[in-house]
Amino acid sequence: EASQEVRSAINAVDPAVALRVVRSLESSAGFAYHPGIIFSELSKVAGTHLGNGLESRVAAWVSHTSLHPEAQQRLQSLLLGQRAEEIEHVLEMSRDPNMWAELHSKADPSAWVLGHVRKFRRKQTNKDVEEFCRRFGFDPETQEELLELNPERARRLMRRWTPSARTSRERLQDEFRVLLSQATKQLRVAKSESWQHRADAVASHFHIMKEWSDSEAADDDEEAEPRDR
């Protein structure tokens, strides 16, 4: 079973890259979810989809961070697993001198960089959703539902839009809205279950604390009672 560290590494990269790595490794004899192997393979596979010397630029940028070698390896694996435009965004961020000081102040530099990548991804996806809805004549409600999804889910859904001369736009829009409705329903159910789980955990904690408090109060009352002589 994959550890939290490995799951975080896989979830941090582009889904297509992560899938290629996991499928390749799981087909190997004696495979185990070892963090070092995962990080190494993510770097190898991720770099193959990058052009214009981007992989070597990432390596040079990571080396310039002067982080601990292990932290550099994680950061490089993380960056190489992102889309080219997202990598360029991170490299562009380094033009700000304050960025380096902030990077070194973080306990987990890779997580900090990933946070910026996700913000950028959300911003770009929002633009793509707006353009998609404008181009294919979707109403504001459809746009809002698309924006409610996480960026990867929204992108996958938009890629399923396949205009055809044999099918009217109205029918294609109806079919797309059905898929979108299913996706948003699944998302809301997952969120509701997550919040319910948290609420149950809080209620359980409150119940335990209340019992503990009541028990202490009872002990105090017993100590306060006058003893028979």
What is the compact description of this entry?
By secondary structure, the protein is mainly alpha-helical. The chain contains 11 helices and no strands.
Characterization of the model:
With 229 residues, the chain is an all-alpha fold. It has helices spanning 4-12, 15-26, 35-47, 54-64, 69-80, 84-93, 97-105, 109-136, 140-148, 151-159, 169-224. It starts with a helix and ends in a 5-residue tail after the last helix. The model has no long low-confidence stretch (mean pLDDT 78).
Topology (SSEs and partners):
Layout: H1 4-12, H2 15-26, H3 35-47, H4 54-64, H5 69-80, H6 84-93, H7 97-105, H8 109-136, H9 140-148, H10 151-159, H11 169-224
Distance between the termini: 65 Å
Q: What number is the mean pLDDT?
A: 78
- Rg for CA atoms: 25 Å
- Enumerate the spans where pLDDT stays under 50 for 5 or more consecutive residues: none
Shape: elongated
- How do the helices and strands follow one another from N- to C-terminus? HHHHHHHHHHH
Top keywords for this entry?
11 helices, elongated, mainly alpha
